[in-house]
Specification:
The complex is a heterodimer of chains A (about 260) and B (about 625). With about 260 residues, chain A is an alpha+beta fold. Helix content of chain A is about 35%, strand content about 10%. Chain A has two domains: about 100 residues, Beta-grasp domain (Ubiquitin-like (UB roll)), CATH 3.10.20.30; about 130 residues, Fumarate Reductase Iron-sulfur Protein, Chain B, domain 2, CATH 1.10.1060. A five-stranded mixed sheet of chain A has the order 2-1-5-3-4. In chain A, strands 6-7 form a two-stranded antiparallel sheet. The chains are: A alpha+beta (about 260), B alpha+beta (about 625).
Chain lengths: ~260, ~625
């Protein structure tokens, strides 16, 4: 099948980018990324630079890949990353406009690759249980209801790809941040730090330049792991009570940076 | 070279205790004076970096991905073994030890495996405490499933995303140390050489993948947790970026490479569908708990599976191995799948596939139960193949999945270069010639959380290291080696792309050093690899420059190392005149077609030393002694 690709090309963070148009002979069974592989092989044979895009596991779990296809993060198939999106979802001759995640907190590095270290800093600011190696009780010492384990797992499935931010008109990271708070907060192990965690993670999220959440729900709509919108309610609840309970604590932030040296 | 494995004396169940007491400690106030480099941020690397940071060392952790959370451990699906015996089904540390030694076809070191089984129980506790959402029973206790190669249920899991959840636990522990200031994280940094000064590992040379800058990082010890080399086959279940470069460059600096031919072919992957295919997708082995594997009895039977009546189906694993059935270990399941396809009984368009059928389980347990257990795997299968496995059987075929070989390490996980430690899949140690399902996660975390933090401390406490700077001639030499190899790749300006070479290399290795091997085929493969390598160095096309993000250049460096590794794999496979585990030499099989080991002549670890490209590598042997589990022909009948 013939596919037209209109792709964002930008050599470095500092240079201006533009769209270039290409034609590819695709196979309906290939993935979107394999389609880009075919394009790149052709470009290189003509002595041109290939389109840079992030990818690694190609089975929808590492969270490396992701870009907008015709304005939708990860393309038209629900709950699917671009590495698992097969070309059979497109029509013969269709044009696909492909561009990187657009958000102030995700500066472009090259072509379709963006800098998502802001997510790591949000986790660093409190997205963990403070338990050092060796100090754990027996795994069965604290029973956890199946419901709680399932709810936690639903949120923990987040792959940190950034589609939620890219889809949100406010470029908010509320779904990502709320998912981690829910994952840890519904388990007894995560309860002692629940409020301080909320305070710290939300502070860091705001510091990174992500926008605020206005309950639009685009994020959950494009999320490849279908993280439920309820995690944002969880975040807001913990943040609200945390702001009172932990009001005497000072919250330090990690310096956001887009520098690579 | 004389290999000293430093296995502690005494009965096997006391060895690790004895070792821990004998290992020297670093005073807590002195720990911050020591810097440690950890390369790789998967289960092994992240857990090591986090644990060492918690102890107070100054840690630098490197990964080539944009975030440590992307490491390929994340893709492990099925689960992690631990000898908890929560199911009261007769499991014990000794049984896990026994199963692993037997599963590895008696080519692993007993003492290491026993320690792994002992530590397995602490890993589960640690991960639960971190908030890993393991599957639970309604009463709130941890749930288990069974896995290939075992008759007890000892596998802990988090849906089909166990690797993801364990990695996120380790990643979060790592990020906690980043915030605490004890770990500095270097994402998008690829290690391209090891700096060895006065015979000991003192640092690494990296390339910043965004700016192209070559940097020198010095430390008191270096730990590699850089994963396996399955991507030498091009098509594998590994992530596209997984590579052997860090291990290989350490090998070229003097670290011996052990058992490179021990590679694992996973029996349940989605079959190849076209030449554009970039990778293979694994379907968790746990599916074999409820799925039945079969092919038509008649060769060339092209009917759709629903039209083939029971009597004309061959459930070949159940027939040949009645006691383990569909749960035989991976090497056995893979070899049998190949055999039935070679007989012309394979299914699907290419004839390279067998059915994995859930209809009986769905009838017995109900669709919702199957959905609960494997929902995400079924969805993934449908997304890729456009077929609904609740209605038609899955088609599966073996694919390269894991590599048991790796850099040689002693009991303390130290390589033959002092100060260079190797953990997780990157080392060779615990799985022998075949890894059992759900054991990779266990080993990665065992090495990282519970072994290397002690043994590196011992090294630092007992070694006097002079201060060094970037200006040291050996450090500068490593930098210039890296710069030269990059310029060389860019200067070729030929016609053929890196992927095209990689694909061709992968096909040679898969055909001759894959599921079955012969001395003749391996010899031929070596000459083909050399020819292709010559073309690589004269006709490679790497567009762009070294001064910015250049994915072709990154790949080119990795593929250059795969060429050399591929040759070593074939040399090792040809040198091992026996069949064991994943290494199946057609010349050595029992009358029933099972692997025929030769314990008299080959009960050793083959550790190869680099002697310059084109020179035959030097073989050192570490004899394996089995005091507890006596080698027998592995029987799963």
């Amino acid at each position: 099948m013939q596919i037209k690709l209109k792709i964002w090309r930008q050599k470095t963070a500092k240079e201006r980018g533009k769209f270039d148009t290409y034609e590819v002979d695709a196979n309906p069974d290939m993935s979107m990324l394999e389609c880009l592989d075919v394009l790149n092989e052709g470009l290189m044979q003509q002595g041109e630079e290939p389109v840079a895009f992030e990818h690694d596991c190609r089975e929808g779990i590492c969270g490396s890949c992701g870009f907008m296809i015709n304005g939708v993060a990860h393309g038209p198939q629900p709950a699917t990353t671009v590495c698992q999106l097969t070309m059979r979802h497109f029509k013969e001759g269709q044009q696909l406009v492909i561009e990187p995640w657009r958000a102030k907190a995700f500066p472009i590095i090259k072509d379709l690759i963006v800098d998502r270290r802001a997510f790591d800093r949000i986790i660093s600011s409190g997205g963990y249980v403070s338990v050092s190696t060796g100090s754990a009780p027996d795994g069965n010492a604290i029973p956890i209801s199946k419901e709680a384990a399932d709810e936690s797992m639903d949120a923990a499935a987040c792959i940190g790809c950034g589609a939620c931010v890219a889809a949100c008109p406010n470029a908010s990271a509320a779904l990502f941040t709320g998912a981690k708070m829910t994952h840890l907060g519904v388990l007894p192990q995560g309860v002692p730090e629940r409020h301080l965690r909320a305070l710290r993670m939300v502070t860091q999220m705001n510091e990174e330049g992500f926008g605020g959440c206005t309950n639009i729900g685009e994020c959950t709509g494009v999320c490849p792991k279908a993280i439920p919108l309820g995690v944002i309610a969880h975040m807001n609840r913990d943040y609200l009570s945390g702001s009172w309970i932990e009001r005497d604590k000072t919250v330090a932030v990690l310096e956001p940076t887009s520098d690579w040296t | 070279m004389e290999l000293n494995s430093h296995i502690p004396a005494g009965p096997i169940e006391k060895k690790w205790d004895a070792a821990r007491f004998d290992l020297k400690l670093v005073n807590p106030a002195n720990k911050r004076k020591y810097s440690i480099i950890v390369v790789g941020s998967g289960l092994a690397g992240a857990s090591a970096a986090a644990s060492l940071g918690e102890l107070g060392y100054k840690v630098s952790c490197f990964c080539f991905q944009d975030s440590p959370r992307r490491a390929h451990s994340i893709a492990a699906q099925g689960g992690i073994n631990a000898a908890k015996n929560y199911q009261n089904d007769g499991d014990s540390v000794y049984r896990l030890f026994y199963d692993t030694v037997k599963g590895g076809d008696f080519r692993a070191r007993e003492a290491n495996v026993y320690r792994l089984a002992q530590i397995s129980v602490s890993i589960i506790d640690q991960c639960v405490a971190q908030g890993v959402p393991f599957a639970r029973e309604y009463g709130g206790t941890l749930s288990n499933r069974s896995f290939g190669g075992a008759q007890v249920s000892r596998t802990f899991y988090a849906r089909g995303q166990t690797g993801q959840q364990l990695l996120l636990g380790a990643y979060q522990a790592l990020e906690r140390q980043v915030e605490a200031g004890s770990v500095t994280m270097f994402p998008r940094s690829e290690m391209l050489d090891l700096i060895v000064i006065d015979g000991v590992a003192r640092g690494i040379v990296t390339r910043n993948l965004v700016t192209g800058k070559i940097d020198t990082h010095l430390a008191h010890a270096v730990i590699l947790g850089t994963g396996g080399y399955g991507n030498v086959y091009y098509l594998s279940t590994n992530a596209k970026g997984s590579n052997v470069t860090a291990s290989w460059r350490a090998h070229k600096r003097g670290a011996l490479f052990a058992n490179p031919c021990f590679t694992q072919i996973h029996p349940t992957c989605i079959p190849v569908s076209g030449d554009y295919q970039s990778k293979l997708t694994l379907m968790s082995e746990s599916l074999r708990n409820d799925g039945r594997i079969w092919v038509p009895r008649k060769a060339g039977d092209k009917r759709s599976p629903s039209d083939i009546p029971e009597a004309e189906r061959d459930y070949y694993l159940e027939r040949r191995y009645p006691s383990f059935g569909n749960l035989v270990p991976r090497d056995v399941a893979s070899r049998n799948a190949k055999a039935v396809c070679d007989e012309g009984r394979g299914v699907g368009e290419t004839g390279l596939g067998v059915y994995l059928d859930f209809s009986e389980s769905i009838n017995r347990l109900g669709k919702h139960m199957i959905e609960d257990r494997y929902g995400n795997l079924f969805e993934m299968y449908q997304r890729i193949t456009d077929e609904d496995p609740y209605k038609v059987p899955m088609r599966i075929y073996p694919a390269i999945h894991y590599t048991m070989g790796g850099l040689w390490v002693d009991y303390n996980l130290q390589s033959t270069i002092p100060g260079l430690f190797v953990i997780g899949e990157a080392n060779f140690s615990d799985h022998g010639a075949n890894r059992l399902g759900a054991s990779a996660l266990m080993q990665g975390l065992s090495d990282g959380y519970f072994v290397v933090p002690y043994t590196v401390g011992n090294y630092l406490a007992t070694t006097k290291l002079a201060p060094v700077t970037n200006a040291h001639p050996d450090a500068r030499n490593a930098v210039s080696c890296v710069e030269q190899s990059i310029s060389k790749l860019l200067a070729i300006k030929g016609k053929r792309t890196v992927d095209s070479f990689h694909r061709a290399l992968g096909k040679i290795v898969w055909d001759e050093c894959g599921m079955s091997r012969t001395a003749e085929g391996l010899t031929e493969a070596i000459s083909k690899i050399r020819q292709l390598r010559d073309e690589f160095w004269s006709n490679l096309n790497v567009p762009g420059s070294a001064a910015d993000l250049n994915q072709s250049l990154e790949k080119a460096g990795r593929v250059a190392d795969f060429f050399e590794l591929a040759e070593l794999m074939c040399i090792d496979a040809r040198d091992r005149n026996e069949s064991c585990g994943g290494h199946f030499r057609e010349e050595f099989q029992t009358p029933e077609g099972e692997a025929q080991r030769d314990d008299e002549d080959y009960s050793y670890v083959a550790a190869w030393g680099y002697r310059g490209y084109g020179n035959y590598p030097e073989l050192s042997k570490e004899p394996l002694e089995f005091e507890y589990v006596h080698p027998s022909q592995r029987s799963y009948k």
